[in-house]
């Protein structure tokens, strides 16, 4: 009875809040009390299910952003909700000070489907990326015998793996980089999709411990490298005794139509960084996959995380993975991605210069003379579709991987009709 009374009170409270606190007031409160480091589009979301979100006024939207390609299983997937409820009622957090069953369960499942020997869990993508670089440096000093404090890491230009000081030190984006120095030493960069440039770097510097790269540069605007690039990178890293660290936080776990984006070229990195979809959008989970030699390079006492490997996080991640595998969401991403490609490539060049995509990670690059992405995304919101631009002129398309053909065609019709309507005005 007490639980019923509590639910009624919560329901009544929500009704009162929606009655007296308008979207405008909610936005004004955020602007007044929060940081301004992120620009939000003017819509206040209250709930979501599957591929749909609803705002405070009850308007429904198709979600084409999926929390920046995180909610791959769809919003509030019943299996994820049940797993979280079950685990949080039993044991939510202990830290890694003690053993818990979900930690090993997740590692066992994830290593089995990816072919790696060990999994080191963290929370966010940037933490996992940083962890992979620590492993690479430790390997560089102890195995490759790089002189102390000389280990160099090379990154692809245009990369994005977070906003920590290490991540922005690796960035070539002025918005990430400018006025945050001093920067991490011995971080070098090379043009993405240029094997000759990478080999020159490796020839020039014998102290390179790792090359870190995204198989598709998502934040840079869904930049897809030439066929054979990743295979060539693998060969160069092997030739020069350098670790290949691949950032699959956004591209991994079904997003591009394969379990991993490197699977398109049958490449196996030395260290693989995963996140986003691993969480199901329910609880931050990320981590690094690698061989025993790699993962055990971080011995007791040199690395840690208060919440990394928590029973709640690992239980949610395990269920998120099982949903991706059992519901064949990578296959669905491949099928729906082809529909997206075929329809958006029809858009006239005076409106959109280029479509780029693989699976359900895609971007439509607007003609700068036509419109900017922010204005178009605002119009899409009015039509019942949620997304946001990248680099001002690229419309992101990364819906939940559970989206079906009817839903994706409705979304594509909204995009096309909105763009054509804007051209007339």
UniProtKB/TrEMBL annotation:
PROSITE patterns the UniProt entry points to: AA_TRANSFER_CLASS_3 (PS00600)
Pathway as given in its UniProt record: Amino-acid biosynthesis; L-proline biosynthesis; L-glutamate 5-semialdehyde from L-ornithine: step 1/1
CDD domains for this protein: OAT_like (cd00610)
Enzyme Commission number: 2.6.1.13
Transmembrane segment boundaries: none
Primary location class: mitochondrion
Reaction catalysed by this enzyme: a 2-oxocarboxylate + L-ornithine = L-glutamate 5-semialdehyde + an L-alpha-amino acid
Pfam families: Aminotran_3
Subunit composition and interactions: Homotetramer.
Family that this chain belongs to: Belongs to the class-III pyridoxal-phosphate-dependent aminotransferase family.
The protein's name in its UniProt record: Ornithine aminotransferase
Gene name, Swiss-Prot/TrEMBL: LOC105361822
